[in-house]
Amino acid sequence: MTIAYGNHAPTPTRPGGKHKGIIVCWFLGLGSLVSWNSMLTIGDYYYCLFPKYHPSRVLTLVYQPFALGTMAILAYNEAKINTRKRNVAGYILFAASTLMLMVVDLATSGGGGIGPFIGICAIVAAFGVADAHVQGGMVGDMAFMCPEFKQSFFAGLAASGALTSALRLITKAAFDKSKDGPRKGVSHIDQFEKKIDPPLLFLGISTFLEFLCVLLYAYLFPKLPIVKYYRSKAASEGSKTVSADLAAAGIQKPANQEVLQLFFNLSLFVYLHFIGLPFISHVGCSKKRYSSVPSLKSGFLQAADVAKPLERLSNKQLIFQNIDYALDLYLIYVLTLSIFPGFVFENTGKHKLGNKWYPLVLIAMYSVLDLISRYIPLVPCLKLESRNGLLGPEANALGNLLVLFLLGGVFSGVALDWLWLIGQKKAFWSAKSACN
Looking at the predicted structure, is the pLDDT value of residue 360 above 70? Predict the structure, then answer.
């Protein structure tokens, strides 16, 4: 069963495609962090190339200001931004930046030095900008959809870390004893010797996944019936950020719809006024019945007021109403990023696994447990429910604001991570090598 939306394509009233949407959201979450997690899991390789520059700490510190600054600008202007263009641009930037990392590695033949390191830092800054576009845009976009979409998206974020950690452990075991160290290994296939570059393998997989996310979000996700339903609902509540996504799905909102609504309400009022009946508002949240017939002037004002889109809560109101969520996210990521990944790579001391394996095992354990924890809220006896009652535009804005607090916590944690180096001799000028 469908209902017509103007003279354009129909909007579903009984949406389907929920399971497809959950799968697509999982892959979109995977693509949101797979490039960055690939860089983290080959951190031992960068410590071999740039032992004096604290790669894990410096690259993370470069990444976060760009992510936080861009996210602050986008969150402030969220209501005016085309969500479709924002998310597609973010995934394209992720793909292009990851491809550029491969170009830098090939152009320098895996060489170190300050030049390549500055180039990598510039690319990591682009990662930060892309992260702000994608993570805030996707969370805001799915905030007014079914909760399973958000759950799947965040599970995909964690899965990117688990996937890259598993691949890194496999390649480390296979290529660790090769003559070229962590960059190259030797594999014999059909009696032919073939050199394989594990960092390029990681970055190549990441680039492919990012391009896949571009296609999924641009062409498949907006055409799912359930996505059309939620976006049409958000548009009816005054959201202007979903118009391009609705257009991509073949649903067009007439540009003069508000004018037509005003004309209809005014005509209705004039008719009711002259036959002596009260004007009754049934639009939006206003359901006031006037006990007496209003004057012509006041009736016109009432009709015009009914035609206006519903007013949403301000960003300030949304933050104060959800300050507990915002502070929880901020403090969790302050704690996490003050330890991971810088402390894990540089300050864990000597162990039986050696400097090469121990950080990778710790990162893998963190990633796997992070993935498991994302599914804990789905356990029936522990099932969590989010707050309800927000309009589509408000849910979108709140999603962006919560991501802003998350990135603020990440940036604070990354800055605090440098405190571990205080008191260590020459700690700020050299890092522990992972090559031996």
Answer: yes
